[in-house]
Amino acid sequence: SQVRVARAQVRSAHARARFLRQVVMPLKARIVQESQLQFNGMLIGPFQILDAKRQEVESAAEYIAALEQYWIERSILDQTLTGRMSSRDAASAALRKRSEQEQGHD
């Protein structure tokens, strides 16, 4: 049961990181390129291009956080599979992880 939950969390974290890397980040980079062209043509101001770049950087940071989450989930799964982590340890690790994420978003 715990292995299934851990495996599902690993798959979910992996899918999210892959989506950010393959879809969101290239899209944000393309938006910055197009904004640069519009800026060069004097169609937008400097604040719009800075906003596009800020969004690109934020998507990269979001990808890094998703990648970190994937590796945390992967290590929990590996520890559960090898028997190094009991159900109580897995539950406390999950609670600790959630509380760290909530503190990071405040």
Radius of gyration: 19 Å
**Residue windows where pLDDT falls under 50 for at least 5 positions:** none
Number of DSSP E strands: 0
Principal-axes shape call: elongated
Strand content: under 5%
Distance between the termini: 32 Å
Largest sheet: none
Residue-averaged pLDDT: 88
Structural class: mainly alpha
Report the total helices.
3
| Helix-strand string | HHH
Quaternary organisation of the protein chains: single chain
What's the helical proportion of residues?
Answer: over 70%
Reconstruct the topology from this structure.
Elements: H1 2-40, H2 46-82, H3 87-105
Helix pairs in contact: 1-2
Characterization of the model:
With 106 residues, the protein is mainly α. The chain is elongated and about 60 Å long. The protein has helices spanning 2-40, 46-82, 87-105.
Q: Can you give me a brief rundown of this structure?
A:
The chain is mostly helical. It is built from 3 helices and no strands.
Defining traits:
single chain; 106 residues; mainly alpha; 3 helices; 90% helix
